[in-house]
Amino acid sequence: MKKLLLAFAFLNSWFSYAQLCNISYSGIILDEHDYTPVLSAKVTVKELNKTYSTDSGGYFMIDSLCPGVYNFLFYHHFGCEPVKAVKVLLAPVKDTVFLEYHYDDELEKVIIMGKSYSVDFLQKVKSASLDMQLERGKTWVDLLKTIPGVTSLSTGATIQKPVIHGMYGNRVLTLVDQARLEGQQWGNEHAPEVNPYAYESTTVIKGAAAVEYGSDAVGGVISTKMLPIPSDKRFGGLADLGYATNGNQLLGNLKLHGRFPKSKSFSWLLQGAYKKSGTLKAPSYYLANTAMDEVNSSAMLNYEGKRWNSHVAYTFFQTNLGILAAAHISNVSDLLKAFYAEEPAVKGDFTYRIQAPRLHTTHHLAVWNNMYKFNTKHAVELNYSFQSNDRKEMDSHNGFQTKESVLMSLQLNTQSMTAAYIHQWHPKVKGKIGVNYWHQTNYYEGRYFVPNYYKNAAGGFWIESWNITEKHRVEAGIRYDWMNYDTYLIENGSVSNYLHNYGHLSGTFQYLYTINHHLDLRVSGGNSWRAPSINELYSNGIHHGAALYEIGDRNLKEERAWNIGGGINYSSVRWSAQLDVYHYWFSNYIYLQSTGTPILTIYGAYPAFAYQQVQATYSGMDLNVNYKFTGWLSASLKGSLVRAYNQKTKQHLVNIPADRLRPSLLFTKEFINEDQLKIRIGSTLVRKQTKAPVEYDYVAPPKGYVLMDLAVLYYLNYDKGDIVFSVNAENLLNTKYRDYMNRFRYYADEMGRCVYLKIQVPF
Q1: What's phi and psi for 473, nearest 5 deg?
Q2: Residues 31 and 141 reside in one and the same domain
Q3: Is 28 found in the same domain as 148?
Q4: CB 257, CB 295: distance < 8 Å
Q5: Do residues 158 and 45 share a domain?
Q6: Strand, coil or helix: what is 729?
Q7: Which of 73, 89, 105 corresponds to the end of one domain?
Q8: Residue where one domain finishes, among candidates 68, 89, 110
């Protein structure tokens, strides 16, 4: 069967990982007791039915692997019952494996600790499986926040945008199934349309990925993917059910996947999820009009041939959510009172009803990704995607009307194409050359916020990676981008047409020095740029979902950024640590700043903000430390801080995350029947943002806070996989607090205690 059947599909399947079969898995096996190399230890790969041995130095190397999921068995000698270790290999990986073995019939214990890294050594940080299990059913950004250096910009309790290195919005790029996610992401209350139930692999690529994915990924790239469907599985699936106490939230997800009996080259997946929440509650009152519901569905069809891989996918995302009633105030005097009130004037009772003001968003994404492999060293990619994003803002009072009406409707359609040539010209040198093209149209109806426009963009990139020696690796890339806005604006009763053209070079360089199997150093540098977004140029009106009045500036110039960074990774039998530092210089940095005076409209009174452009710098660090006390108890510490400085006013910038630490303890108990119990207790410590200039905001930054959380997971082993029961309590002490990065901190406290009860059943 030569033709690919077209079908509905879900995000990021096997094709997302389709690469040449030149991946290596290597490392060293050490004795856990004295750290000496274990010679002649065995490494068995079940999928290959092959066994490898370590040399006199304890080293092993397995090369020519295709991307996929592999089951590795580590043991010292035959006759010992091995312990399984599952690895998802998408790029070359090096591990340090600590093996505690005995020469009797006792079960060997294998502990894989070390920090894996890609030969391309982009700064990739993956979300841990434990965190993914706990965050399933919450927002996708909640999952990202478990990664050091990632925080969020919130609008109320239900809308979040990821923040990397203090940057968000158009400075952070989201990839879904290899396609740039194109929603109304320019708005701070426009959360990414990503279903957290659908993905089992989420990677944050900090800094250096801009060359391949776009010049505007100044802060980083977030890539979300699904794991490949096992080649030996004809039919399987997964069911999730959950309940959350705050808002009486109901959560459900069903995923089916398999392969066709007569043609194992074809695999398929169907998925659907539903979430419904009532009014959320702060520690001492209900947050009026915060109910929401969300529906997601997806399907995919893959073909995996000897040379040609093809992937067709479609996803649907729809959310309907209320906007905090306390944020919409009829007059300026009441607005000023709300800024300084301990509690909002408008409080609610529990209900599942979603009232105006509310947001209704629908997002469709279709992708067709193809790869043709000439041989093991050369291949071409050709990808296409189409997205349609429909957003409606409703209000209960449109002028003198009393019924709910659509204040604003935005329809954004995007088509994109990518062609790339993947090559390995030398055993130590490989790279990728490609071009991208995007075409986008935006139409609005109702109240004006941004104009109708066409957007065309094109870019070309070239990346090379050179593995000089076992200890030294370098990577460099260059990219050129061109972008054009063709806008149509009604002025004085007639249509005016404005054109904006932008184009620049960007590039990156990274160097990795592996000192030994415990320690490696990384240095990176580069430059990037981004064009002003359409709202930064033309917004002039109420941003209803964010409850503010925005004023754009059509004379804004391109934003340019130069960066340097470094990192150190350390791993041993008990310790693993990662420290990253970075510094950015910005020319024409664009940000939203308070005008200091609220604006009164026929729809109510709103704080006013205008887009400014200055010279700025960003500096910061991310820390992740783990320590294993025993086989059943470990501790971790994550932390981040960032400083952003306005060179013009000699003051710090506003809307920058405060310093934070995240310590936690993890207890793990494994039973003879292979059941497993995990208990994690953690705390989040956030300082008051003392660096933000008070004169450039309507309300001073809130106090710092400390939150406690507790999670219990039980993995019940059975033949189809683990049935997972989880109980997760957030804000365990029901602490009253407000977060500086929440737009609605002007009006209300954050959500109080919430306990999640979930079960996951594979079949």
Answers
A1: -140, 140
A2: no
A3: no
A4: no
A5: no
A6: strand
A7: 89
A8: 89
Residue 375 counted as domain residue: yes
- The domain that contains 562 carries what CATH number? 2.40.170.20
Structural domain includes residue 176: yes
Residues contacting residue 571 through CB under 8 Å, at least 6 positions apart: 96, 113, 114, 115, 518, 577
Q: What is the 3-state secondary structure (H, E, C) of 279-295?
A: CCECCCCECCCCCEEEE
Distance CA 202, CA 443 (A): 32
Write down the residue that tokens 């809307």 correspond to.
655
What is the count of structural domains for the chain? 2
Alpha-carbon span 237 to 242, nearest angstrom: 17
Q: Provide DSSP, 90-129.
A: SS-EEEEEEEE--SSSSPPEEEE-S----TT---EEEPPH
Place of tokens 């609005």: 444
Residue 13 lies in a domain: no
- Within the chain, how many helices (H) and strands (E) appear? 6, 42
Per-10-residue mean pLDDT for the chain, 763 residues long? 36 40 82 64 84 77 84 69 72 75 31 28 52 68 74 75 84 88 70 74 64 82 72 81 96 91 86 96 96 93 90 93 91 93 92 93 94 92 96 70 72 96 90 95 89 96 90 91 94 92 93 88 93 92 84 95 93 87 96 92 92 96 92 92 93 94 93 88 96 89 97 88 92 97 93 96 91
Same domain, 433 and 365: yes
Question: How many CA atoms, within 13 angstroms, populate the side-chain half-sphere of residue 674?
Answer: 9
pTM: 0.82
Angle among Cα 220, 222, 225 to the nearest 5 degrees reads 155
Do 613 and 658 belong to one domain? yes
472 closest CA partner among 508, 512, 525? 512
Burial of 199 (0-12, 13-18, 19+ CB in 10 A): buried
Show the CA angle centred on residue 735, arms to residues 729 and 739, nearest 5°: 100
Structural domain boundaries, residue 78: 20-89
How many angstroms from the chain centroid is the CA of residue 202? 6
